[in-house]
Amino acid sequence: MVNGACPACGTRVLAGEAFCESCGHDLSTAPAGPCTACGACAVGPDGYCENCGMLQPTGRDHVEIEAAYSAAVSDRGLRHSRNEDAMALLPGGQGAVVAVVCDGVSSSPRPDEASQAAADVAAAAIVKRLADGDDAQAATREAVRLAADAVAAAARPGEDSPACTYVSAIVLGRQVTVGWVGDSRAYWLGGQSALLTEDDATPGTHMLTAWLGADAGEVVPHVRTFTTDGPGAVLLCSDGLWNYYPEPEALAATALHDTPLVAARRLVRLAIEAGGHDNITVAIIPFGQGERTDTTVAFPKERSD
Q1: Structure pTM?
Q2: Disulfide engineering: 118 pairs with which of 137, 147, 175, 286, CB 3.0-4.6 Å?
Q3: InterPro entries per the record (predicted)?
């Protein structure tokens, strides 16, 4: 570096200096561009501005996916500087659709990396296991194990462990298999809309009792399979949506009258308009559309075997 000023604090620095003697800024790192909050060219390799402390946004601020007649939308909302949610949506063999939603735990380091690793690893694992002949429940359990390992492996010496929640759905034939760890949710939307998951959290709070991460201990996912004989939709979401719209009937009123992508966009927009306090992620998988000519929808019954 030639003689000039520290990009973080403006103090004069000399060529060859590795750190600013005034503020300690690492002068060997290439500037990452100005901070979106304060304008200082002081964004460190960890994504935080060394001048004001703001975590910089990434290319995941708003993401949309369409696959296999299904759709997912994720948005950072209004209050967070970065989207720490992640999602995956993949077609599987024999007409299966696989969706995963993970919500990074904001109090942990690099929660966006944790959620993305978990979503990507889990979705790919489910598709592979189904192709190898595993049933949906076995595929889900293996996917959670691999996702938990991926998040745990992201931990660095001397820092707390990255962490995230997890929820997935496999729609295959007339069966819906959901798996979850944490408080991301799955809903059945139809004539008897219902919440399919139970939050791993202290009642009445957002204090998680289970999550993915190196400090999570043994991860034991909840896995359930339901069957249904009528059309409807499976919805996965992070708490950025259900904080504002927890009731299945309200979600169904919005999600069942448009294409999955339009419906997911609308639900995300409603959460933003309600306050957008958290990141918001919604995945919608239509189920049995066009199979019946009436409007009766049967609530999926949990498999007994």
Answers
A1: 0.80
A2: 147
A3: PPM-type-like_dom_sf (IPR036457), PPM-type_phosphatase-like_dom (IPR001932)
Residue 103's contacts (CB-CB under 8 Å, 6 or more residues apart) are: 84, 85, 115, 164, 165, 182, 183, 184, 238, 239, 240, 279, 281
125 contact partners, CB below 8 Å, separation of at least 6 = 139, 142, 143, 146, 147
Q: Hey, how many other C-beta atoms are within 10 angstroms of the C-beta on 192?
A: 17
- What's the pLDDT tens digit per position in 47-60? 667 887 766 656 78
As a 3-state breakdown, the chain gives helix, strand, coil percent values, each rounded to 5, of 20, 30, 50
pLDDT digits (tens, 9 = 90+) for 196-208: 999 999 998 889 9
Tokens, residue 83: 């989207």
Q: 176 pLDDT exceeds 70?
A: yes
Contacts of 305 (CB under 8 A, 6+ apart): none
Which domains are present in the chain?
1-56 (no CATH), 62-302 (3.60.40.10)
